[in-house]
Specification:
There is one protein chain. With about 160 residues, this protein is an alpha/beta fold. The protein has helices at about 30-45, 55-70, 85-90, 110-120, and strands spanning about 1-10, 50-55, 75, 100-105, 130-135, 150-155. Strands 3-2-4-1-5-6 form a 6-stranded mixed β-sheet, with helices on both faces. It is globular. The two termini are about 25 Å apart.
């Protein structure tokens, strides 16, 4: 059994329309929500072992908050930037099997789609949401559509 946490980046700052999408930072709410969600996951007893993130600034900044709470390093995963659900699950399929609990940090609509493909459940996925999914596999390479079950959906407001 593996546990996959699919996380959407925290709220980003749209004030500068000339800023490249990849370079948008977190806004004030995002800077508040990301560390709060990280501590919440830790306090809820999640035993996170690995974090991979989109290279977009807002996603990486969010992932850094989870890394700080769990005392982990973040692995940059460029393919998670604007990734489809299938790409997200393909990235999960490449995780090493010594990792039992992993988090991927990325963007919508891909993250919400990945939850649906993995668990069969449609979820509303606001910024900074984290879906915790149990995956009935011994190896990440065995991860396929429908092999997961949604254990919890945490949002900043829940």
């Amino acid at each position: 059994m593996k546990t996959l946490l699919l996380a959407r980046h925290a709220k980003s700052d749209w004030r500068d329309p000339s800023e490249r999408d990849h370079d948008r930072p977190l806004d004030a709410r995002g800077l508040r929500d990301a560390p709060s969600m990280a501590v919440r996951l830790r306090d809820d007893g999640v035993r996170l072992q690995h974090i991979a993130s989109s290279t977009a600034l807002r996603a990486r900044s969010t992932a850094d908050e989870y890394a700080a709470a769990f005392r982990l390093e973040v692995a940059d995963e460029p393919s998670l930037y604007a990734a489809s659900a299938r790409t997200i699950l393909a990235v999960a399929g490449t995780l090493t099997d010594d990792v039992d609990v992993a988090m991927l940090v990325g963007h919508n609509p891909g993250m919400a789609g990945a939850v649906t493909e993995l668990t069969g459940e449609f979820v509303s996925f606001p910024t900074c949401a984290v879906a915790e999914c149990a995956v009935d596999v011994d190896s990440w390479a065995e991860l396929i559509e429908g092999s997961g079950r949604l254990l919890a959906l945490r949002t900043p407001r829940s």
